[in-house]
Amino acid sequence: MASLMVGAMRAGGMFAGPVGWALGIGAALIDTFVIMPALRGKGRVDAAGPRLLDLPVGSNVPGAPRIWAIGGRVRVPTHVLWQSEKVREAQPATNKTGTNAQIRRVWFDALIALNDRPCVALQQLHGNGKLIIYHSRNVYGVTSSRMALSIVAGPRIRLTAQTTLDPDFVSIFEVNDAVELRDWVQTAGASINTGYFKVLAVVHHTTLPSYIELGPYSGQTISGIVATAGNAFAPATIRRVDNVLFAEAGITAYTSTVQTNPRTTLTATSSTNWRIAGLFGMGDKLIIANAVGLGPAPVELQSAATGFTGRFKPLHAPSSTIPDGTYGASATNPARIEFLQDRGYTTGIFPSSPVPFEPSAYFYNGSDTQSPSSLVIADEGNGNVPGYRGVAYQGLDDFFATQFGDSLPYSMEAIIDVDQSMDWGRAIQTIMVERCNLTASTVDVTGITQRPFLGAYLRGPVPAITAIQPILIAGQLMVQDRDGVLVFTEFANADEQTIENGETFSDFGTRLDGETPADNKWTVEDMATEDLPTKIGIRHQDPDNQFADGYQFFGLRHPEGLNHTNEQEVDLSQMVLTRLDAVTLAAVLLRRAWVNRRRYRFTLPASYIHLLESDLLTWTDDDGTPHVGRIIQRDIGSDFRVGIVCIAEDLDLASYVGSPPQSVTHRATLNIAGPASLDVIIVDAPATREGQNRKPGIHLAIGHKGGPWAGAAIYESVDGTTYDLVDIVGRRALTGELVSTLTSATPAEQIGVSTLTTTAQSVDVQWTPYSEVYITSRTTKEVVGGLNWVALVKPDGTTEIAAFTSAVALGNGLFTLSGWLRGLRGTSDVAGNTVSACPADTRIVLLNGDTYYREFDGEITPQALSYKIVPSGLGLDDVDPIGFVQTRRNALPLPPRTITKTIDATTFTARFTVTHQWSRAVLALGTQPPHPMDEPVESYRFTIYDVTGTQVRRKKTITASATGSNTIRDRWIEYTSAEQSADGYTPGPSTLFTVSVEQLGEFGAGPHWFKKF
User: Are the beta carbons of 875 and 403 closer than 8 angstroms?
Assistant: First the structure.
């Protein structure tokens, strides 16, 4: 071919000649008038369309730019397709600060556009960060075709990852989890795609891949099973079960009499695999299944559940009763408590009665034959409503908009399943055909290796060249126009041409006759090193993190001679990429930038006129070194010589594999956890810290049972109607509940003995999940110093201050506490000689300073209060009030320590003397009297009862008031024989009297010292 050209041209300089390239057809013109119009579709539209991120991300205004999504699953912004004026409005009366007010509450019907093309399913819908609709609570698992199944001794099913770069089972599963297997392809044995399995062992990646071992949990037979994990387009799944509780050894049911309304309590008969925290919520409809002898029993959760091991909080059965008794199960076929139905909405946004909202009944998949929405027909009338054919959307029936400011949420996002299966080639063809109105025959994607395309979306009127750009970058693809056909291909699959080069004859440096030969066959230019990137980051939707925004990067490790920093970012946040794909792409782009920095320029004869941009050229230089270049510009002159500009290329880059950090690759829905679940306990007890005993005050212990903690607001009401904000707190108290009874005991402090009495009692306590990591054993010295002090709030409302020295963890927040110091700070009973028992269901608070102390301004009488503790994400109306009558125990005098009785042998006059009193000052444990007087005026009130000890006969008070001293010299009263006779007693030298004594203080009377003596 070169010899033909030599006859017409003389060897000469490159691009020399009078005409040169002025008359040539440059590659830029081909791009502008050939390729770009085809990509843009109809009309002459500027190829530089708006960036996706410059478009609005959300709108509650009908008619906003639509979403166009493709792929398996993707998170997309949505917009309102239609909205009713309002369905209904309520204005309940309230009274704030003495002014009558109407609170406006509004409900809407609406249609939310999800995709401007057919859609398989809506997985989730959330607005302003709050979950509105969900499809499934099973969001944890691994979906991958890179797993091998084998049967090992036990028998057990062992699932092994293919390599150490695949997901590590340890990162998502742990022993005793219940799991499901889905989409496994079996060739022998019973089906493993049904029932439940229990995790028996999980092994981390080492030099060998991770594996997990499972045992049957639904009575299955697993011997003889042969199965594979499918393929990349239909991978198998191992999914943790998050909507069922299992009881391996049976369930015991009994009717609780502690509650105002009797409610059934369920208790596992042994320690089981129950993980309650974060699984069920109040109001959930549940069913008890597979409990031998019980049968399916529908129940409704009436009390918030915590992370109990072997114990479940009360359930109420509205439609049936659960007889008391034990219902059996087995380790391989356990009883279950599961959702009665997955209604697909979060409590409080849609009504549950009279007809619950069923999202699936109002989902329209975007088919060309779908009927109009019944919601719109009810508002606009039949015959006036379009079917919105071709648009996938979700209807919202009776949406409680007041939670979002009496309007639909401004920012709404959805996770949607779009296509059942999609690969990269089909994704590009779909964009070209459906988005740009090209015929399928004009789009060639045969050069793209078949691999799954996870998902991507476009928003608004984006030109095709802008729409296709991120996909070409992410897939490392290129496009050419070949005779009216757009050919999309990977770099390694591009057309390749070898250029002839030899010592005596070469196609390089073609020249016309008479032209002087060039010194070099080609010229080489290298981009300045300072202009090259040192790190590239990729923003993407991360299916490994439930489709949250992900960011992966790859950077150079500062090799010798590199003294600049150039960090670049590629925004692919509208695309779904696994972390492995994203970090590999970052590495490929960084490496390609450094490889492509070399540019070659040369001239070829007319025999190469068929070359196009992005074609690959290979040649060997005169030294025998091979070169590969990709054409970025080619120009044809009037003499038909072909001017080429190409960049160096490495065809192995696309298969580059790095060592990125791994996580699970389960393509699950985004599950936005609801507001934090709280455990509120009000502690009205003597002060345990100095400074908290001068004015009346109470402690609000705000425990955390589960959900995202973002603080809580404390509202207080004096009339039960109007609530005022007291404070917003970020501290979480350590709270729990006694599972067994803490029996009566001797007080830790006794008169005349400075040594403390520690009892050998033990009791099981279930702490809330947040608390369990802070519960630990302490030495007696540490306890005396203030550690491990607790408030025990009994069901009758009385409070004991105590402390424990030993804590033994039983798992899941259950502890055995022993080595008790009882009745601290004057909270012993009767006459200070004993401490009464604390029954099961007694609440417990660790007094470590994390409670909220609410101080009052010195009221003199007890006052009824009402509190609402509102976690972040809920409103005042979402929380039930907690009624409370404060007694100001922290500021009241403590009860007297000892009272003595003497009777005159002649007159039979009885004298009752206060020999020792406590002080509300916080003194060291074991401090013996006399205690300092901390009341402004010392005063005592003696109450004398009748012979039966039930009727008050008389009261006598002694006080230092008007004596010129704040203390009393003679702390006694006399009870004459005449008074005794009048009160029904028989005076004598050994008469028994029932007497109580209160110390009167600045803010009222302290607790009674009560005794018959």
Answer: yes
The 697-706 sheet, strands edge to edge: 677-683, 697-706, 852-855
Q: Is 354 helix (H, G, I), strand (E, B) or coil?
A: coil
Q: What are the angstrom distances between the C-alpha of 622 and each of 402, 427, 499, 520, 880? A: 78, 44, 13, 11, 86
CB 188 within 8 A of CB 222: no
The crossing angle, in degrees rounded to 10, of helices 579-595 and 464-475 is 90
Model confidence over 120-160: pLDDT tens digits?
A: 989 888 888 777 887 655 556 788 888 999 999 989 999 99
Q: What is the pLDDT of residues 674-724, one digit of tens each?
A: 577 899 999 999 999 888 888 889 999 999 887 767 678 899 998 888 888
Q: Which residues pair with 861 in a beta bridge?
A: none
Strand partners, 506: 501
The C-alpha torsion from 874 through 877 and 880 to 882, rounded to 10°, is 100
32 pLDDT band, cuts 50/70/90, is very low
d(CA 1013, CA 1011) in angstroms, rounded, equals 6
Please count the other Cβ atoms lying within 10 Å of the Cβ belonging to residue 13.
15
Q: What is the DSSP letter of 1002?
A: T
CA dist 643 and 522 (Å) reads 11
- Per-residue confidence at 57, pLDDT binned at 50, 70, 90? very low
Pairing status of strand 335-339 against strand 285-289: antiparallel
* Average pLDDT rounded to a whole number, residues 985-1011: 90
**Which distant-in-sequence residues (6+ apart) come within 8 Å of 692 by Cβ?**
853, 855, 890
Report the DSSP pairing between strands 485-490 and 443-447: parallel
Q: Is residue 555 predicted with pLDDT exceeding 70?
A: yes
The answer to whether the beta carbons of residues 804 and 819 sit under 8 Å apart is yes
